């Protein structure tokens, strides 16, 4: 199998419809010479975090040699919360209207986690470690395979020409970047780095409107070694798709919609 085209997507943030629209452009079923690299941040902000994760996992299972999924900082924070002390409810309190939680638990399951039997009740009583414990244990109990899969995702993917990563690497380390970069930098590096590097770095995390002089949301290229893809899907309703042509070495921002 020869890969001729590599597509990259990032920062889906629980928005399943824009993700499905972007996948229509990639079309792994009809293009056996295509591969897909997903740069993380599958959860939070949107209403369908679980559906996004399941779609990514299913793609990996169907195309194990052609789909690579990386971990993002929001995915990492979600996993940290699941494994944290019950006293630490900071992630849960930051989940606006429990949007991410509700994608994993149906109304009755959430009601039980909150200590009652009324699925129509507003989930507002998040006032203690018991509530936090109940909710964060209900998710891996119901979705143990999905959570386990998420925990196993790598933080970086390297090819002969590129470094795919959610946020960035320690570029000051030069050729030693992989060994010198702490895990949290792969997923949380900020601000964006620009300029030349040993390989082309393709990342998400930093919204491209903060990098484009005109505040636009398309793929940002610094003219050197960096591409950034996060187009703020939660606001614009679509994802950026970057395509790399192996024969020509050309990168292209593929319009969605």
What does this structure look like?
This protein is of the alpha/beta class. It has 2 domains: 5-72 and 155-254, Metallo-dependent phosphatases (Purple Acid Phosphatase, chain A, domain 2, 4-Layer Sandwich), CATH 3.60.21.10; 78-147, no CATH class. It is 35% helix and 15% strand. It has 11 helices and 10 strands. The strands form 2 sheets. It has a 5-stranded mixed β-sheet, covered by helices on one side. The longest helix has 14 residues, at 49-62. The two termini are 30 Å apart.
Structural descriptors:
single chain; 257 residues; Purple Acid Phosphatase, chain A, domain 2; 2 domains; five-stranded mixed sheet; 15% strand
The fraction of residues in strands falls at 15-25%
Please, how many domains? 2
Reading side by side through the largest sheet, how are the strands ordered?
3-2-1-9-10
Looking at the overall shape, the CATH architecture of the largest domain is: 4-Layer Sandwich
Low-pLDDT sequence parts: none
CATH class of the largest domain: Alpha Beta
Mean pLDDT equals 94
The main β sheet shows up as: 5 strands, mixed
Shape: globular
**Element-by-element helix/strand order:** EHEHEHHHHHHEEHHEEEHEE
Helix content: 25-40%
Secondary structure tally: strands: 10
Q: Helical element count?
A: 11
What is the CATH superfamily label of the largest domain?
Metallo-dependent phosphatases
* Derived structural class: alpha/beta
Q: Enter the CATH topology name of the largest domain.
A: Purple Acid Phosphatase, chain A, domain 2
């Amino acid at each position: 199998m020869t890969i001729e085209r590599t597509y990259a997507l990032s920062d889906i943030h629980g928005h399943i419809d824009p993700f499905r629209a972007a996948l229509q452009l990639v079309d792994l079923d009809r293009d056996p010479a295509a591969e897909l690299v997903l740069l993380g941040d599958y959860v939070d902000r949107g209403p369908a975090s679980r559906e996004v994760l399941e779609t990514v996992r299913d793609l990996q299972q169907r195309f194990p040699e052609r789909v690579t999924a990386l971990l993002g900082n929001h995915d990492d924070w979600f996993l940290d919360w699941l494994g944290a002390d019950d006293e630490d409810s900071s992630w849960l309190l930051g989940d606006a209207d429990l949007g991410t939680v509700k994608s994993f638990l149906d109304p009755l399951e959430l009601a039980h986690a909150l200590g009652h039997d009324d699925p129509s009740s507003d989930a507002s009583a998040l006032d203690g470690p018991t509530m936090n414990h109940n909710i964060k244990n209900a998710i891996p109990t119901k979705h143990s395979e999905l959570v386990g899969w998420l925990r196993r995702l790598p933080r970086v993917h390297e090819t002969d020409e590129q470094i795919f990563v959610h946020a960035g690497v320690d570029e000051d380390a030069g050729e030693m970047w992989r060994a010198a970069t702490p895990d949290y930098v792969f997923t949380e590096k900020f601000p964006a780095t620009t300029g030349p590097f040993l390989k082309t770095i393709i990342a998400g995390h930093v919204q491209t409107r903060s990098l484009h002089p005109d505040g636009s949301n398309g793929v940002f290229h610094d003219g050197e070694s960096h591409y950034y893809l996060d187009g703020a899907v939660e606001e614009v309703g679509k994802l950026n798709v970057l395509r790399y042509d192996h024969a020509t070495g050309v990168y292209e921002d593929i319009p969605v919609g």
